[in-house]
Amino acid sequence: MSSETKQILTTDGIPLEISLKKAERKNKIKAFLLVAPLLLFLIITYIFPIGEMFTRSIDDKMITNMLPKTFKSMETWDGKELPSEEVFASFLSDFKILVEKKEHGKLAQRLNKEKNGFNTITKKLFRQVKRNKIDETQNIKEQIMKVHKRWRNVEYWQAIKRTAPPYTSAKYLKAMDMYLNEDNKITQVSEDRRIHRILWLRTVEVAFFVTVFCFLMGYPIAHLLATLPMKYSNLLMICVLLPFWTSLLVRTASWMILLQQQGVVNDFFVMIGLVSDDNRPEMMYNKVGTYVAMTQILLPFMVLPLYSVMKTISPSLMRAGKSLGGTPFVAFWKVYFPLTIPGIGAGCLLVFILAIGYYITPALVGGASGTLISNQIAYHMKTTLDWSFASAMGLMLLGGVLVIYWLYNKLVGVDNIKLG
Amino acid sequence: MALPKYTETRYRIWHYFYIAICTFVFIFLIAPLFVIFPLSFNAEEFLVFSEGMKNLDPDAFSLRWYKDMVYGTKNPWGLAAKNSFIIAIFATLGSVILGTVAALGLSSRHMPFKGIIMATLISPMIVPLIISGVAIFFFMAKAGLAATHTGIVLAHIILGTPFVVITVTATLSGFDHSVTRAAASLGSNPVNTFMKVTLPLILPGVISGGLFAFVTSFDEVVVVLFLAGLENTTIPIQMWTGLREQLSPTILAVATCLIVLSTLILISAELLRRRSERLRGINR
After folding, report:
1. Does residue A397 register a pLDDT over 50?
2. Fold of B67-279
3. A374 interaction partners in chain B (CB closer than 8 Å)
4. Which of A20, A329, A337, B152 is most buried, most CB within 10 Å of its CB?
5. B111 with A257: Cβ contact below 8 A
6. What is the ipTM of this complex?
7. For domain A198-416, which CATH number applies: 3.30.1490.110, 1.10.3720.10, 3.40.50.920, 1.10.150.20?
C-alpha cells in the first residue's frame, strides 16, 4: 500500500470507514432492540428465578440469623468439651428473643434435622424460660444443664455449631442419599433409606430405554414416510402428527384405558390365548405402563427430525450403491445409514431430554415403581413444602439436561430444530 | 412400493417384514386415540366395551356423558373450559407479539451474540417442565401473581415464545429482504413496511407459531399445577385430578372433544405449512 493512498470520504466529508462502522453499529442496536423485550422478559421471569433456585438450595441463613450471639461466642470454642459459660449465656439470650418472637419451634425443628432429640430438650428449655425459672444472675451453664441431661452432652453442642455457616450443601448430599456426619465427613445413609439414588438411576434408565424404543420404532416409519409417494405419505403423516398435536393427558388417559386389567390389550391377549382370563397381567401402575405410554407419546419427536433428514437423501444414492455391487443391506448400511446420522442424533437427544424430565405420565400410569425424579421434585414442592430440597434436585436434573443440550448444540445446532 | 419381479425371496420376505413393522408402529401411534371415541358414548359407567357395544346394540350407546359434561352440577368443566380459552388466547397473543419481534431481530445479520441469545430464548422449551414450573412458581409467588389468571398467562407466554421464535425465524430464513428495501426506497417508514410488506409474507409462519403456542398453553398442566388456585382451574387440571382420582366416562367425553379440536388444529397447521412452503418456493 502506498503512503499516498488517501482516505476515501463520503459526501459529508467523513471517512468512509467510520461512516460504515457507524451504520453497522446502528443496525446492531436496531436488531438488539427488537430482541430486547423478550430477552428482558425471560431474564426477569425465568432465568433469574432459576438462579434463585440455586441460592435457595444452599441457603441456611435462617438459623444463622436466629442464634447470632451463640455462634459469635462459639468461634473460640474448640468443640471437644462442653462449651464455656459465655456460650451458654449467649445461647440463652438468643433463645429468649426467639421465645418472644415465638420462633423457638422453628429452631427446634431445624436443630432436630441436624441431630435427633433436639425437639424434646428445646421444649423443656422453653418451659423453664417461660416460667422465668432461670436466674440470670446465677451460673447459667449449671441451670441449662439441669433442664435435660442432653444439654450436658457435648454432641448436641457440636450439632449446634455445625449449623453455623450460612450456606449448606446438605440438600445436594441428601439428593444423593448422603450426609455430613459429626466429623464433617460425607457419609452414605443406611442402605434401607437410599431412595433418591434409585430414582436417579431409574430416571436415566427409563429415558435411555424410551429413547432406544423410539429409535427402533421411529426409524422404519420415518424411512417409509420419506420414500413413499407424496399422496400416500401425506395420509400416513397424519398418524404421526395427530398424536403430536393431541393433549398429553388425553393420550395418557387412553393408555390407562388400554392397559387396565379389563382393558383392550388384555382382552386381546386373552383372545389370542397368550394369557388365561383369570390371570391377566398387571400392565399399569408399574414400569411397563411408563415405558409403553412414554414411547408412544414421544415417538413423534423422533420421527419428525428423522423424516426431515431422510427427505433430503436422494434415492439415486441407494441405486448407485446397489449398481456398484452392494446387496441392498450393504447399500443401506454403507450409504443410507451414515447419511441419516444427523437426524438420529437430533431425534435421540430430543427424546432423551424430554423423557428425563417427564412428570405427568409416570405420575398417572407409573405407580410406585414407575415414578421418576420429577415426581419426587413435585412431591417436595407440593406436599412436604421442602422447596430448597426440590430446588436442589431440580438443579441437578437441569445440570444433566444442559450437558445434553450442549452436546445437541455441538452436533446439530439449536437453530436446526424443526417442528412438524 | 411394488417390488421388481427379479427380487430375491429373502429380500421379498424382508420387505414384507418391514411393511409389517411399519403397520404395527402406525397402529401403535394412532389406535390409542380411537379407543376413546366409542367408549365416550358408552351407556354404562364402566370403561370397558360392554357386550352390547360389541354387538353394536344401539341401546348400549348414549350421549349421557356428554350431557354430564355440559349440564352436570358437580362438574367444573364449564369454568375450566372458559379459563383455558381465556388463558390460551392471551398467552398466544403475548407469545406471538414478543416472539415475532424477537425473531425479526434474530434474523438480522447484524445481530450480535446470536448463538447465546437464541439459546436463551428457546431454553424454556429444552429445560424440563418441572424445573420451569418450580422457577416460575418462585417468581410468581414473589410478584404476588400466584393463583391469578395474569400469572398463568405470563407463565404460558414464557413456555410459548420459543415455538414462535423458531417457526418465524425459519420463515424469515427464506425471506427476500430486497422487498423491504424496495418499500423503504419508496418512502415507507419501518412500521408501515412491516405491516404492509413483511407481515403478510411471513404470516403463515407467525400463525403456525401461534398455533404451537396455543396448544402449549391449552395443554399445559405441570406449571399450572403449581400456580393455579381453585378459581383458575383449567381443562388439563380437571383432567389430571379426574385421572388421579377416578377414571370417569365424562373425562372420555372431554377427551373426545379435545381430539376433535386437535384434529382441527392439525389441519390448519398443515394447510399453513404447505402455503408457506409454496411461498418460499420449495418445490416437491
Report:
1. yes
2. MetI-like fold (1.10.3720)
3. 128, 130
4. B152
5. no
6. 0.86
7. 1.10.3720.10
